[in-house]
Amino acid sequence: MWYQIELGTVDEHENRCYPLPETSELVFDMKSESIVLIGMAGVGKSTIGISLAKALGFSFIDVDDYILEKDGKAIQEIIDEEGEGALLQLEKRRMYEIDLPHKVVAPGGSIIYHTDLMEYLRQKSILVYLDDSFKNIKEKLIGELDRGIVGLRNKSLRQIYEERRPLYAKYADITVNCQGKSQEQQVKEILQHYLNLEK
After folding, report:
1. Within 57-127, where are the H helices?
2. What 3-state class would DSSP assign to 144?
3. Residue 94 near residue 137, CB atoms below 8 Å
4. Residue 129 CB neighbour total at 10 angstroms
5. Domain boundaries along the sequence of the chain
6. Which residues pair with 169 in a beta bridge?
7. In Å, how far are 41, 138, 140 from 144, measured between CA atoms?
8. Would the pLDDT of 41 be above 50?
9. Residue 172: partners with Cβ closer than 8 Å, 6 or more residues away
């Protein structure tokens, strides 16, 4: 799903906008013109991404929706019909074709398995890792384990969580501990870290 969001003041009652310097005060290099959110399924990458894009005046791309739009299939459907390997390669190809500047991107959690892609993203964007406890992730995914999580055919959700967590941390420019924090608090924390990188 694509969201083109104009920079400007958002009604504070929506709890989705935070004070930013004037646009002229934000000096971006190529890397910092985009943000890619990484983390497990269920951590809230899309929800946080929409609010973050709105605050920054960026567009937002949910990569699962982008794949559905381009390829006509949902993530789980691709896994069921073509296998996990096919999904991984498709995710990788679609990520490479996204024009990153002035976008917040929320990809699937499995992009972390592509070393070359992660190195590319680390050069071209700010990688923000949304970290949460396994307990919280599991609770958020109750009834949703058919949402296209790579690895679930051969591993438990706990095993996938433990396997991916150090990889997310390895590539992250910013890590946000989501435990006990509202969506608004998480967005505000990301913005604070993000703007500090520009100083």
Report:
1. 63-71, 75-82, 84-97, 115-124
2. coil
3. no
4. 24
5. 28-197
6. none
7. 10, 10, 8
8. yes
9. 38, 127, 128, 129
Candidate from 83-87, 142-146, 172-176 with smallest mean pLDDT = 142-146
- Given a contact cutoff of 8 angstroms between Cβ atoms, the answer to whether 125 and 31 are in contact is yes
* pLDDT, averaged across the chain: 85
Report how far apart, in Å, the C-alpha atoms of 47 and of each of 10, 168, 177, 191, 195 are.
Answer: 16, 19, 16, 15, 20
The pair of structure tokens assigned to 183 is 């969506």
Contact 174/198 with Cβ under 8 angstroms? Answer: no
Which amino acid makes up residue 103? K
Burial class (CB in 10 A: 0-12, 13-18, 19+), 74: middle
- Mean pLDDT, range 52-56, rounded to an integer: 94
Does 3.40.50.300 match the CATH number of domain 28-197?
A: yes
Q: What is the pLDDT of residue 30?
A: 52
DSSP string, 158-195: HHHHHHHHHHHHHH-SEEEE-TT--HHHHHHHHHHHHH
Judge whether residue 10 has pLDDT over 80: no
Q: What pLDDT, in 10s, does the model give residues 141-165?
A: 876 666 678 988 889 999 999 999 9
